[in-house]
Design brief:
About 40% of the residues lie in helices and about 20% in strands. By secondary structure, it is of the alpha+beta class. The mean pLDDT is about 90. The radius of gyration is 38 Å and the shape is elongated. Bound molecules: phenylalanine.
Length: about 350
């Protein structure tokens, strides 16, 4: 019985060795029969428990099969080694390696990180809000009248929804209200983020862009504070002394409202083609937060004062890196992107 079993192992293993096609396969076969838990190993270990007569028959056979398997493995190994086509396997170590391209941050991300660094150093928090925004937060809460032209199809991407009206947010200002609902003054926060306008694109207009909002609220926050912080920010951002100029303007959610300019970063305000000779560059919108907006956020009327501003990150990146077409940012042209 046992002898037959051993013979069975022999024919089975030798057949497998013959058919094996790689050293790895050969190794696995060897382990299967001769390894610590191999089937032949088990038999060999058990010999001592057999009666002397049985052991006398099975012992030599088992040991012989063990030698046979080992030898067959060795021979097969040699055979396999001889089959290797060394011409094919040759490696030319002098060939230059294939380069892995390393990624890097997009210029808009770089600018956003710069801004965040400067403002957090001044004690501002950073907040975030949804890109798909309700009509209420994007317009109504910000004091936009029902028939305000910004709600128009021309400016806004409307999102179909049966229950409530949703838009792709047209600015980061709705996060002012979201933040104030959750936080009580005094507060200082910036809100960078992606916004959308239903825009015919050209060198200075994009349908998808980034804005960055700032909001400071307290008991006696004034336009003076606003001017100081803006000047401080731009001086750090452009690493040179920057001046700011305010012009009267209108936004439903600020009163008074203004647009603000900084002196041209190319000519320092003397007048050059970049600023069309005027010495000033238009930056964005700003103003003192309307008491109506405070009321919507749940603050008592006429208790607090604050300012807010918002402007486009793309425009800032264009100024900093002297880029002349806003469409380059999302155009996917690697020749542009790899310069950063
Ligand atoms: N949200 C305005 C815009 O997108 C800019 C702005 C922000 C104006 C904050 C005033 C205060 O044009």
């Amino acid at each position: 019985m046992l002898k037959q079993k051993i013979e069975g192992i022999k024919s089975e293993s030798l057949e497998k060795i013959k058919k094996s096609a790689s050293e790895r396969e050969l190794y696995d076969i060897k382990v299967k029969y001769l390894g610590r838990n191999g089937s032949l190993t088990k038999i060999l270990k058990n010999l001592k428990n057999l009666s002397p007569e049985k052991r006398r028959v099975a012992g030599p056979v088992a040991n012989q099969v063990r030698r046979d398997i080992k030898e067959a493995c060795q021979n097969k190994k040699k055979e396999l080694a001889e089959q290797v086509d060394w011409e094919k396997e040759k490696i030319d170590v002098t060939l230059p390696g294939r380069k892995t391209e390393t990624g890097h941050l997009h210029p808009i991300t770089l600018v956003q990180r710069d801004i965040e660094k400067i403002f957090t150093s001044m004690g501002f928090k950073i907040a975030d809000g949804p890109e798909i925004e309700s009509d209420w937060y994007n317009f109504t809460a910000l004091n936009f009248p029902q028939d305000h032209p910004a709600r128009d199809m021309q400016d806004t991407f409307w999102v179909k929804n049966n229950k409530e009206k949703f838009v792709l947010r047209t600015h980061t200002s709705p996060v002012q209200v979201r933040f104030m609902k959750e936080n009580k003054p005094p507060l200082k926060v910036i809100i960078p983020g992606r916004v959308f306008r239903n825009e015919a694109t050209d060198a200075t207009h994009e349908h998808t862009l980034h804005q960055f909002e700032a909001l400071v609220v307290g008991d006696d926050v004034s336009v003076g504070h606003f001017k100081y912080i803006v000047q401080e920010f731009f001086t750090q951002f452009f690493s040179k002394e920057t001046k700011i100029r305010l012009r009267p303007c209108y936004f439903p959610f600020t009163e008074p409202s203004f647009e603000f300019d900084i002196n041209c970063t190319v000519c320092n305000g003397k007048g050059c083609p970049s600023c069309k000779g005027g010495g000033w560059l238009e930056i964005g919108g700003a103003g003192m937060v309307s008491q109506n907006v405070f009321a919507v956020a749940g603050y008592p009327k006429n208790k607090y004062q604050g300012f807010a501003w918002g402007f486009g990150l793309e425009r800032l990146a264009m100024m900093k890196y002297k880029i002349n077409d806003i469409r380059l940012f999302h155009g996917g042209d690697l020749r542009f992107i790899q310069q950063f």
